[in-house]
Amino acid sequence: MFLHALRVNIDANSYSNELDIFKYFPDDTFSFIDKLKNNKNIDGLIFVGQAHLINENGDVDLNNVIMSYFTAPTISNLGKAFYPMILSNPQTYYNKADGYQIHPSIYSKLDSDERGTLPFIKLLDNKIFDDLSWKIK
Length: 137
Fold this sequence. Notes:
Strands 1-2-3-4 form a four-stranded mixed beta sheet. The longest helix is centred in the first third of the chain and has 19 residues, at 18-36. Strand 1 (5-11), helix 1 (18-36) and strand 2 form a beta-alpha-beta unit. It has six helices and four strands; from the N terminus they run E-H-E-E-H-H-H-E-H-H. It starts with a strand and ends in a 22-residue tail after the last helix. By secondary structure, it is α+β, with helices and mostly antiparallel strands. The model has no long low-confidence stretch (mean pLDDT 85).
């Protein structure tokens, strides 16, 4: 895990559906990446998109629904064309990230064109998010 990572929570409730969360989360996080790319006091950025989901009992709970992280070396290697690339193809963002998590309810609604070659990664298999779960306690 990072020693000096900055975690940024993003309100994903403003998106109208699961596809919008997948598509616009990169855009919302990029402004932080761009502003903090030269900050030598952090060695990574963790982004956590949070939204209300209906659970199996019909209750509405706040959940972590999408997450990504970028190490300082990855951030420093992003060129000026990266932002237009993620606007036209969000897969580019997730492929470039040092790690990502997409909630199963979002991932399952993406068709093959939207997710491209992005594999589904089980939360338990991703060690960077050890201290996070889907459900917020």
